[in-house]
Specification:
The complex is a heterotrimer of chains A (291), B (247) and C (334). Chain B is 39% helix and 25% strand. By secondary structure, chain B is of the alpha/beta class. The chains are: A mainly alpha (291), B alpha/beta (247), C mainly alpha (334).
């Protein structure tokens, strides 16, 4: 019974973690850049949702229709104006650059919105369900479902559409793509836009579960790193799987020891994975297949 | 070949990547003072073998000994300290360092034991030898390919190796530059350094090598003098086979 | 000989840099003697030098070896708490605890550096974010976990008074030691190896550089000075709490100062520290919003990465006082 409880609750949290990490994985996969501004984008997505809710009473889930394209535009802009201009330089350069972008986003939000904690509270926020004997809130379930929908949509897009295939091809071999006539710059811009849009969407959805301030997303950022590293850095399915494993590990830690140590789990997992199995789960699976 | 002449010996050297066996139970003996060529079609495992010799990779099985001492599985800097230096197939100069500094890294961290002014003088001597002296103050990234290749050799040489591994140092050079490089390699050998080289430029390797080992699909398929290799049926098959697939 | 040639010759000599540090320190040292009541100037001097110590220390691992650490508050906090606890519980004189604090910070650096420094570039940077967060969590919870009174958790440690003038001199000395160490490292074999790692770790390794050992030593040396800075802070502020000492914001500041000032250069970290202390002090009192400075740093960081990777030091070289090659971490001069 305890185990089922842990599994269900980990699954719900996993949906949330996965939503926050897809964008990071996509951008890393295609551009080999670690988007340190991911947390900032999530925060902006959350605040945009809050503004829409405050001004027009727009539901956070519905606001995705507005937040997602805005996120895309922001990402595409960052890529064209900044990231593209440091391509070809050591990875540290883009890391510091996007770190600067994050600082700008965070401090701008503090200046505009102040440091108060905010929340979006639609009417159904208190509704709960019984899933296998475990009480799950409607909002958690909604975020989980959204996480699954994004996963399926993203996989379909990457496997079926021409653009999606171009993105996957670019993730595998940039030079070969340039040779066969794929506009690598354009695909890079689209991937960065899409990754940023996913982060903003995650921010919008997470308003249902968390209250937030301009520092929102920082703790999730470290978890997202752990997840994409564990998931093999560029595999969308790997991200989903890794999200679940991390959520489960945290859940067990909290149950077995102290709640305060929950955030320690992701760090320990991160370092262990980085050092022991640098390719993450995906590499482990691939190795099995080849052998 | 008497055993005491062998400086570098491999026994059953194997390296697997997941399910792929890049180097498969290869045996070889490299004699002190010779130029030992390593050839084979693409994917034969030459570069992997080089990385095993230089300590970049750890062998999955087998042993590599330098003058009787096991070096397989040691870290690259430790292998270097024992006397095996390597160049990189894709040249890797320290981009923001001057050419002299590039070589100085090899001198100060190599086996010369020289420091300070003596180390700088040694670096200058090596630059002179490798015909890079006029470019001592140029940054690594602004060199032409031919000079980068020579810098690559110079930096390895600066560590005072007994065995120098040269990975395609003539590739991509025009005939004049290539001839110059061949001359330099011969000089290095004449100065007492054992040279092991991987090369696609057949003219270079055939004219330079005392002996050649041919690899295909991770295995050793031939070993002998250049003239013997050129007429070896297995070698011809491996190369013609590859050409037939390519066309 | 033109002024530029003279400046170039001077800048090539490490002794000239050391002399400049000593002159600067002498000037700062006499502030309390010239005017014992110049509390504001003393406070500003403390912060500039204190930030300077942190920035220059970070520069050893971040600027020279090119391993960006976003977790340096861990070493600062370790030092501060070592002093705090020994002073509070064992009644040691805080300045006597400084060597212990430095050693504890260095030991911790070896502990966390051994696994994380096997990682390359961006992965190391991310792992250090984890190091910082994990250390903060441990510092907050260590009393609960072990059932002892050590850091006093979120309540913090309130410490006795200590003569600020003595701390002023101690800060000057630590700053001088930090700067001289960075100058010496840069001029010598160690710095050459670190810079080779910075450029290309694999190539450095095959050229005989023991990259793993060098990086760990660099992180430990960096941590020594951060730990000493922690001691100074504990002695001066007389209050420590984990969420300040181990905060991500301090880690960010420790990255920003050397990067904005000129990553990998000798004087860049000090330039960055001066700017940081000035902005914190002036702009904050001017606009009364603590986030305006952060916005400024963010914009500066983006601009510097895009247009002038050597930061303020790079700008100074553009003015033509010294040749650009000279300020490169360990590139041009012989």
């Amino acid at each position: 019974m305890r185990l089922i409880e842990a599994l269900v609750s980990a699954l719900m949290v996993a949906g949330l973690y996965a939503s926050a990490s897809y964008g990071l994985a996509l951008i890393y996969g295609v551009m080999k850049i670690i988007n340190l501004a991911n947390a900032g984008t999530m925060m902006l997505g959350a605040f945009t949702t809050w503004v829409l809710w405050q001004s027009f009473g727009l539901d956070p889930i519905a606001s995705v229709i507005i937040v997602a394209p805005l996120g895309f535009a922001l990402g595409a802009l960052i890529e064209v104006l900044l990231v593209r201009r440091v391509s070809g330089q050591p990875p540290i350069v883009s890391l510091l650059l996007l770190f600067g972008v994050w600082l700008v986003m965070e401090s701008a939000a503090y200046i505009i919105f102040g440091g108060d904690t905010r929340g979006v509270v639609p009417a159904y926020v208190r509704t709960t369900f019984d899933v296998g004997g475990v009480i799950v809130s409607m909002t958690r379930l909604a975020v989980f479902i959204a996480g699954v929908v994004i996963l399926v949509g993203l996989e379909l897009f990457l496997r079926r559409s021409f653009l999606g295939r171009a993105i996957r091809a670019l993730a595998q071999d940039r030079d070969a793509c340039a040779l066969v006539g794929i506009d690598t710059k354009r695909v890079g811009m689209l991937a960065f836009g899409l990754g940023t849009s996913l982060a903003a969407t995650a921010g919008a959805l997470l308003t249902l579960v968390f209250s937030f301030d301009p520092d929102f997303g920082r703790v999730l950022q470290l978890k997202s790193f752990t997840i994409i590293v564990l998931g093999g850095l560029e595999s969308i399915v790997g991200v989903a799987l890794a999200s679940f494993l991390l959520a489960l590990a945290e859940n067990l830690t909290v149950t077995l020891s102290k709640p305060a140590l929950e955030n320690l789990v992701s760090f320990v997992v991160l370092v262990v994975v980085l050092v022991v199995m640098p390719g993450g789960l995906a590499a482990l699976l691939r190795r099995r297949r080849v052998a | 070949m008497s055993a005491d002449r062998a400086i570098l010996r491999g026994t059953g050297v194997t390296r697997r990547f997941g399910g792929l066996v890049a180097v498969n139970a290869v045996d070889f003996e490299i004699n002190a003072g010779e130029i030992f060529g390593l050839i084979g079609p693409n994917g034969a495992g030459k570069t992997t073998l080089f990385r095993l010799l230089s300590g970049v990779y750890r062998p999955s099985a087998g042993s590599i000994t330098l003058s009787g001492q096991e070096i397989g599985g040691r870290a690259a800097h430790a292998v270097n300290a024992l006397g095996v230096a390597t160049t990189h197939q894709i040249v890797r100069p320290f981009a923001e360092m001057t050419v002299r500094k590039n070589v100085l890294v090899g001198v100060e961290y190599g086996r010369s034991g020289l420091r300070g002014a003596a180390a700088r003088a040694e670096a200058d001597r090596i630059l002179e030898r490798m015909q890079l002296a006029p470019h001592a103050e140029t940054l690594g990234r602004s060199l032409t390919l031919a000079r980068r290749k020579r810098l690559e050799v110079a930096r390895a040489l600066a560590t005072r190796p007994d065995v120098l591994l040269l990975d395609e140092v003539a590739a991509g050079l025009n005939p004049t530059e290539s001839a110059r490089m061949i001359e330099l390699i011969r000089e290095i050998r004449d100065a007492g350094v054992t040279v092991v080289m991987v090369e696609h430029v057949m003219k270079a390797i055939m004219s330079l090598s005392d002996r050649i080992m041919v690899m295909d699909l991770g295995r050793r398929i031939a070993l002998g003098r250049p003239a013997e290799i050129a007429n070896d049926p297995a070698v011809i098959k491996a190369y013609l086979g590859e050409r037939a697939v390519a066309s | 000989m033109t002024l530029r040639q003279r400046a170039t010759l001077l800048a090539r000599s490490s002794w000239a840099h050391v002399a400049a540090v000593l002159v600067l320190c002498a000037i700062v040292a006499v502030i309390p003697i010239v005017d014992p009541r110049s509390f504001n100037a003393q406070r500003l001097a403390f912060y500039v030098l204190w930030f300077g110590i942190l920035a220059a220390a970070w520069n050893i691992i971040g600027g020279y070896a090119g391993q960006i650490s976003f977790g340096h508050s861990a070493f600062l906090g370790m030092g501060a708490y070592t002093t705090g606890v020994l002073w509070f519980s064992a009644h040691w004189d805080p300045l006597l605890t400084m060597p212990v604090a430095a050693l504890v910070a260095a030991g911790y650096a070896v502990l966390v550096g051994a696994p994380t420094l096997r990682l390359r570039g961006p992965y190391f940077a991310i792992a250090t974010i984890g190091v910082g967060e994990a250390t903060r969590l441990l510092a907050v919870n260590v009393d609960d976990i072990l059932g002892i009174k050590l850091t006093h958790g979120v309540t913090g440690l309130t410490l006795p008074n200590y003569d600020p003038v003595v701390i002023h001199y101690a800060t000057v000395v630590v700053f001088a030691l930090t700067m001289i160490t960075t100058i010496a490292i840069r001029a010598g074999r160690f710095g050459l190896g670190l810079f080779a790692i910075n450029m290309d770790r694999d190539a450095a390794e095959t050229a005989g550089v023991p990259t793993a050992r060098l990086q760990i030593v660099a992180l430990a040396v960096s941590a020594v000075f951060c730990g000493a800075a922690g001691s100074l802070y504990a002695a001066r502020q007389q209050f420590l709490d984990p969420s300040t000492m181990f905060s991500f914001n301090i880690s960010i500041a420790i990255v920003l100062m050397p990067v904005v000032g000129g990553i990998g250069t000798i004087w860049g970290p000090l330039f960055g520290a001066i700017l940081y202390a000035y902005v914190q002090d002036e702009i904050t009192s001017l606009v009364r919003n603590p986030f305006v400075p952060t916005l400024i740093y963010g914009v500066l960081l983006v601009v510097i990465v895009m247009f002038e990777p050597l930061g303020i030091a790079g700008l100074v070289s553009r003015l033509g006082v010294v040749g650009r090659k000279l300020i490169l971490p360990r590139g041009g001069e012989t």
